[in-house]
């Protein structure tokens, strides 16, 4: 194999690796799917108790992803969403405003991002074909340096304006954008990863345009809160543990559901038996059981409910 295709192949692999996103286990990841958005709460390419690795579309802007923690810890570094009240956490209008505000603040980065993208994926193959490796390298180095400096400067300025308290995160973003042009292409999207943190994930899902599957996610979350087990492991994507807070969150989810034309009463109604032998079900995860079962396997929920035949 000649060195040129090998070089481009290595570049492509490095580029694709930039579009993998790590998400903590206590957060939901929102990524682009088709024309809309989808939420990922588990699974991924690789996962452990600390988090999971997911892919996003390998194109600037379409590679946007938001990480939204289910419970922001005290002293959260998220500037405008510092431990918001339930009303703020569930305010679809507020989320829309923030989404737009952050998008506009980083708008200039689109230029540097797309210029670097064009330099690497359009100019580089053309120059290699017509000018040879040595001349191409000189032109590429000069071009990427100019755009990378501009990118880092715009990134640092916009980030300090929007996320003034996230100094460490800013330093990490700017440093990685200074080290590689491929990482600099990602600055536009990675800088916005925490933009919606602090809001409730279900409200974020309701606010994102073209979001699919809100009903199922909301139903699962509502049941998880309604039938929460005190001894439940904190590793699972646990939102609040306090009973009063849990009831408040459930009520807010119900309000959101009604606004979307969904009747939350359906979430708690008994399912139809999938098999004639199934006479009980777990109200929390909806798994069906025969008459002999005494508790749910998945969540150790003991009070199984009867299925009306
Ligand atoms: Zn269950």
Features:
309 residues; mainly alpha; three-stranded antiparallel β-sheet; 10 helices; binds zinc ion
Tally of individual helices: 10
Instruction: Please tell me how large the radius of gyration is.
Output: 24 Å
Strand order of the largest sheet: 1-5-4
- Percentage of residues in DSSP E strands: 5-15%
Structural class estimated from helices and strands: mainly alpha
Q: Which compounds are bound in this model? A: zinc ion
Q: On the 0-100 scale, what is the average pLDDT? A: 86
End-to-end gap: 67 Å
Element pattern in H and E: HEEEEEEHHHHHHHHHEEE
Share in helix: 40-55%
Low-confidence stretches: 74-81, 231-240
Number of strands: 9
Largest sheet, in brief, is: 3 strands, antiparallel
Shape: elongated
Can you describe this structure?
The model is unreliable at 74-81 and 231-240 (pLDDT under 50). The protein starts with a helix and ends with a strand. The chain is elongated. With 309 residues, the chain is mainly alpha-helical. Strands 1-5-4 form a three-stranded antiparallel β-sheet, with no helix packed on it. A three-stranded antiparallel β-sheet has the order 3-2-6, covered by helices on one side. The chain has helices spanning 3-17, 86-89, 92-105, 109-131, 133-162, 167-179, 181-190, 201-207, 214-226, 243-259, and strands spanning 20-24, 27-33, 36-40, 46-48, 51-55, 65-69, 280-281, 288-289, 305-306. 47% of the residues lie in helices and 12% in strands. It has a domain at 270-309. A hairpin with a 2-residue loop joins strand 4 and strand 5. It binds zinc ion (ZN).
